[in-house]
Write a structure and sequence with these properties.
mainly alpha; two-stranded parallel sheet; about 0% strand; flat
């Protein structure tokens, strides 16, 4: 196809991805009451599953400080259209999260004609793995980080004279940024896979910079979590595990490439030998 035909094809893939987001956004807007009360506002409650587990753990270890969000801060709205715009924003974010596999699928379908058969097989599987890692990351941010962040940020006081009244936009922004950030960070193995495929990184490179990666992981953990050591360690541990998984995946890619090269050279030698015909006397 010509360049303009490629652009036309890409345009239709983008349109279908946007339509999927828009449809899921409308569905989320219809069920906004359930989303707000049962999902968005749930992590600030002491009845949230994470808060109950931590409180039980604190009882076993005799550590009372593990009981979080015992006195949830008030969530307020200070703009006339604040709740409406927040509802639309939450619906849009919900649509983006739910449509993530569809968006990946549409972009894969655009690049599919340019891929070789073995590349199509690996890439198609990567779509589902990428989506799974994204949803695991979002779930980790929602169940592990969001309650701790809400507890720390809503209970921290610079002075006893100041009362925390949390704006709904600030609350929504904190929860969504944490969930989306962890969802994207959990894509590290997929990023390592493709960077190894195109030859930018190698498993040896990742092993050599393992100590540097630890520093980077803790910096990333400090950025997407509240400034307390427990939350940073909670995020850093799965990130370090994902880094080791990325090294393993990178090594598998390199080994597969070496096997493919060896098979290609072997086939080339066979074809060269059969092409040599002895001359008749």
């Amino acid at each position: 196809m010509s360049f303009l035909e490629h652009l036309e094809e890409l345009r239709w893939h983008i349109i279908r991805a946007v339509v999927a987001i828009f449809v899921l956004m409308i569905i989320a807007f219809i069920f906004s009451g359930i989303i707000f009360d049962g999902i968005i506002l749930a992590p600030r409650s002491s009845d949230f599953v994470t808060a109950r587990w931590l409180c039980k753990l604190g009882g076993i270890l005799h550590i009372g400080d593990l009981c979080i969000n015992q006195n949830p801060a008030n969530i307020i709205n200070i703009n006339m259209a604040g709740q409406l715009t927040t509802d639309i924003k939450v619906s849009l974010i919900s649509g983006v999260i739910l449509a993530f596999p569809v968006v990946l699928w549409e972009f894969w379908k655009f690049f599919e004609p340019a891929l070789k058969p073995n590349e199509k097989k690996y890439t198609q599987g990567a779509i589902w793995i990428t989506s799974l890692l994204f949803f695991i990351g979002v779930s980790f941010g929602y169940f592990a980080l969001a309650p701790l962040s809400i507890h720390f940020l809503t209970t921290y006081t610079a002075s006893v004279e100041i009362v925390n009244q949390i704006n709904i936009k600030s609350y929504i922004g904190t929860v969504t940024s944490i969930c989306l950030a962890t969802g994207l960070v959990f894509e590290l193995p997929i990023i390592a896979f493709f960077l190894t495929k195109i030859g930018i990184i190698t498993p040896q490179f990742m092993r050599n910079y393992r100590r540097h990666s630890i520093v980077v992981v803790f910096i990333v953990a400090a950025i997407i979590t509240p400034p307390d050591v427990f939350s940073q360690i909670l995020v850093a541990i799965p990130l370090l595990i994902l880094y080791e998984v990325s090294i393993f995946i990178s090594a598998r890619v390199v080994k597969q490439r070496e096997r493919d090269n060896a098979a290609f050279m072997s086939d080339d030698e066979i074809s060269t030998d059969t092409s040599i015909v002895p001359a008749k006397s």
